[in-house]
Structure formats: structure tokens, C-alpha cells
Amino acid sequence: MAGAYQSRKGSRGVVVEAVCDEDLWIWHLFVGAPGSLNDINDMNQSPLYVDVTAGRWPPRDVPCPISETTCTLPYNLVDGIYPRYAFLVSPHPMPSTDEANTFNSLQEAIRKDVERLFGVLTKRFHIALHPGRCRSVKQLSMTYKAVCILHNMCVEARRDTFLSRRRHARGTNGGGSAGGEGEGPAGEAAAAAGGHGAQDGGSGDGSTAAAGGAEPGGGIVNGGGLSAAADAVADPPSALNAVEQPPAGGMVAVFDAWGETRNLAEHEQLRADQTAHVWSDRGELLSPYVV
């Protein structure tokens, strides 16, 4: 695995992108991109990103209320190195108010779920720490997919204790708000599978991990974590719909969806709504993260 599969640190491997909720249940996995790619390049060719920008997934007719605004796109918690897209929520670059500082604190805390995921994978399945045993990129990718499938089976063995499911049930039964600090898919990150040692992955507190060792860096964390949209948590979605055809509207619909995801004003509005939501419920949302 030389050439494109060699990282700037000299190690060789492939990049892994995963999405998980706060219970570490993985519902999206993209593995196989060359190890020389950074988190942003890996995101740009991920099926998750391509399906959103092409308008194939998720359905645009499922509203997600945040404060007094309703959005129809999933949002992902990211660090400051990512572009300002409508479905990415980055921290305030220069927080100057208590509201902005509170939002940044909770956003960074939720993104740590990704570190937990890759830490659990390497501790539970030691083969993830020895990628040199794989003789090809295909074998390395298949091994990591098998590890993630087995991990999901372990998580589902304790399905009754799912924290996100209990919160969703409490909200729908009137016992509390459906919104919470960790509802919705709460972890997505790009990780290098097949390196050795640690390497930097950009600024921010996102999380990456290597099949040959842990590596800190900027990761993507799928949202829902700061809003009241918890329907997807009660029944986690299956793998993304691998439909290569454009939507019914043809290329016009593709261009409309592409432009919608790059709406800077919507990105700023989403972050402002999230900041107001966190500030209004800061006591309940921050309590699990305050010692």
C-alpha cells in the first residue's frame, strides 16, 4: 500500500468514516479511501455526503424543529476546519458571549462520543491494532467492516439499556423533553485504518482513530444531538440507500439539492438556533458533562 495510501507521517493505510449515536451504535460506515486523504477530502467522496448533496437522502419532507425554526436537513457537528455548509454545525470561531461559550462547550463534549467509539473498537477487537496482517486494501477494508458489524452486535445485546432510547421514550411519553444533549446520531468521524502511532488531523476537538493506533484530529459528528429530533434514534436507520440514479426531478433537483447544502445563511441560522436552544436548556443539557 504505497503511493496514495501513504500518509504524511509515513504510515500506510486507508481512511475510515463512521457515524454512531451516543450508545456507540454504528449506522454508517465508509472505509477504503487512501490514507493520504484528510478528513475533508474523505467527506467529499463519502456516500453520506454524496447522497445529501444529490438529494437522494434524507427525505426533505421530514421536518426537524430547532427553537422557532424548522430545518429539513440532518446536521453534523464538526470542528472549525470544515466548510460552512448548511448541514454542518461548527463551533463559534471567536465566542464572546456566555451563550456562544456554552454552545461550544456542549458541542465539543458531544463530539467526544467518536473518540469513545474508536477507543472501544480497538480495545474490543485487537485485530484493529494490527493492520499489517492484511495483505491488501480490500482485505483491510473487509476486516474493519467485520469489526464494526461485530461491534454493533455487541451493542445490540444491551438494547434495553440504550441511553438514547430511554430519553426518546421519556420525551414521547410526556415524562420529559425529547430534546437532549445526545439524542440523534451523535458521532461521525474520519479515521485512518492502517497507520501506526499517532498523527494530527487538523484543528478542533473532533476524533479520529487508527486501526494501528489512536490518532487525534478533526472529525465529523452527526447531529441531532442538540435538537429535539429523536425519531431516528428510536429506530436507527439502516445503511444509506445506495441509489446511483438521480432523484425524480432529474439534474435540476440535483443542482437544487447541491445549492441547498451550501447555503451559508442557513448554516449561520442553524448555529444561531442551536445556540439559543442550548442556552435555554443549559442546566439539563450540560449536567452530564459537569463534574
Attribute tags:
291 residues; alpha+beta; three-stranded antiparallel beta sheet; three-stranded mixed beta sheet; globular
Written account of the structure:
With 291 residues, this protein is of the alpha+beta class. The protein has one domain. It contains ten helices and ten strands. Helix 3 packs across helix 9. The longest helix is centred in the middle third of the chain and has 20 residues. It starts with 13 loop residues before the first strand and ends in a 5-residue tail after the last helix. About 24% of the residues have low confidence.
Topology:
Layout (H helix, E strand, L loop, with lengths): L13 E8 L4 E9 L4 H6 L2 H8 L9 E3 L2 E3 L4 E2 L10 E2 L8 H14 L1 H12 L12 H20 L6 H10 L12 E9 L13 E4 L2 E4 L4 E2 L8 H4 L16 H11 L2 H17 L1 H5 L5
Parallel strand pairs: 5-6
Antiparallel strand pairs: 1-2, 1-7, 3-4, 5-10, 8-9
Could you write a compact summary of the structure shown?
The chain is built from 10 helices and 10 strands.
